[in-house]
Specification:
3-stranded antiparallel β-sheet, alpha+beta, globular, single chain
């Protein structure tokens, strides 16, 4: 019998990432029912739940997110909200933009920004790694996409894209402010789409902004400028969100210094294992949501069309049935790991070719690897005493100090 709990809104705010898994553990189940904001919801966790949720078109994104989050993370008529043939065609565009070759080009742009003597990481002064990496990722994403990279543009877009990420799980004035600031970003993106279309290239699109500007839907029409602008933001914002993973990678290097020398040499397999463990171990998205598309049954529970469901991403990444000693940070586990689309799911599960799994995972992993290598090899960056703890009740979670870095003291002659 499915466990049923009263309204859990306050508990979710209090517990954050561990909300679903804690109740599953208490009830000895992978599924329970409760209410959030008085709305009935079914919560699930584990690899089997991820396979059920993502495969077979059983769940839709329609009505799955409150407007407060949807406007910041997706918006109406974006690729995440589409289903069937419309979703497949739009998703194919993002799969091409997130290919391994494209990931390499974006990572090269990130490397160039990181090491730029004029606009890279600050030299000779204290700085907050999270803020600076967001700026570098914004500049790299704009350069790669074929957009302007002047300092005022990058500064403003970095702040606005950051607000979309930081306030997606919030309510009230801070969320309203982030959504108000997003309107400025949407206007900028719409102008970029219109300017690109005015160029009317007589060749295949050479940049991501051209690919989005001239993409055609299943009726053969170009996307309306405002929808194309939303998709441009859906390309840029996830790149900027990788800053959270990079800060946690820096934290892992600080807490596991034995890995620093190994990673400074840039062995790709070591870097890959470390990046994957950062994605598994540290908090990113707590869960994803969907609504049932029909009458379904799983783990003894009968779903009706429209039922709201949350799949626990963080809890699945920490499931002891899948991961030995899941609360230990251990990159070695990925040396022998067999890739499985339903066990390592920090950015969603399933097949990215046919489902709703994030098409940018290759980009995410490559950006984390480049940052790890740069951080591990940098002799002139010091981590002063600070509060590097993080709370799993904060969505999204980050070290409380943000991760402050000092320049190394000058060497004595």
């Amino acid at each position: 019998m499915t466990a049923q709990l009263p309204d859990s809104s306050l508990a979710l705010l209090r517990e954050g990432y561990t909300f679903i898994s804690a109740r599953c553990d208490e009830a000895g189940t992978d599924l329970f029912q409760t209410r959030l904001m008085l709305r009935p919801v079914v919560c699930m966790r584990g690899a089997a739940a991820a396979e059920f949720f993502y495969d077979g078109g059983r769940f839709s994104r329609a009505g799955a997110l409150p407007r407060s989050a949807k406007h910041l993370l997706q918006d109406a008529q974006s690729v995440q909200t589409l289903e069937g043939a419309d979703h497949y065609r739009r998703k194919h565009l993002f799969l091409e933009l997130g290919s391994r070759d494209s990931a390499g080009h974006l990572a090269d742009a990130f490397d160039a920004q990181w090491h730029d003597p004029n606009h890279g990481l600050p030299v000779g002064r204290r700085f907050d790694l999270h803020t600076e990496v967001r700026r570098l990722l914004t500049a790299a994403a704009c350069s790669w996409a074929g957009l302007p990279t002047d300092a005022p543009t990058i500064g403003r877009r970095s702040r606005e894209l950051g607000l979309m990420i930081d306030q997606a799980g919030s309510f009230g004035p801070v969320n309203w402010y982030a959504r108000w600031r997003r309107r400025s970003t949407e206007k900028w993106a719409t102008n970029a789409i219109l300017a690109t279309r005015l160029s009317a290239p007589d060749r295949a699109p050479a940049t991501p902004v051209e690919a989005i500007s001239f993409h055609r839907d299943n009726t053969g029409k170009e996307l309306p400028p405002d929808i194309a602008a939303v998709e441009l933001l859906n390309l840029l914002r996830p790149v900027v969100a990788v800053s959270n993973f990079i800060v946690f990678a820096a934290l892992a290097l600080t807490q596991h210094p034995d890995w620093k020398d190994r990673l400074s040499n840039g062995d790709d397999h070591d870097l890959h294992c470390f990046a994957q463990e950062v994605r598994r171990y540290y908090p990113f998205f707590p869960f994803v949501s969907g609504t049932a598309t029909g009458e379904l049954e799983w783990s003894g529970h009968a779903f009706k069309p429209g039922d709201w469901v949350l799949l626990d991403l963080y809890g699945t990444n920490h499931d002891p049935r899948t991961w030995a000693n899941p609360e230990s940070f251990n990159p070695e586990r990925f040396r022998s790991w067999q890739p499985n689309p339903h066990t390592l799911i920090p950015q969603g599960a399933g097949d990215k070719e046919t489902g709703h799994r994030c098409p940018g995972e290759d980009i995410t992993v490559e950006l984390i690897k480049r940052a790890i290598r740069a951080l591990a090899a940098a002799p002139d960056l010091q981590v002063p005493a600070q509060n590097l703890s993080f709370s799993l009740s904060s969505l999204p979670a980050l070290p409380k100090s943000g991760f402050i870095i000092d320049p190394a003291p000058p060497r004595r002659r």
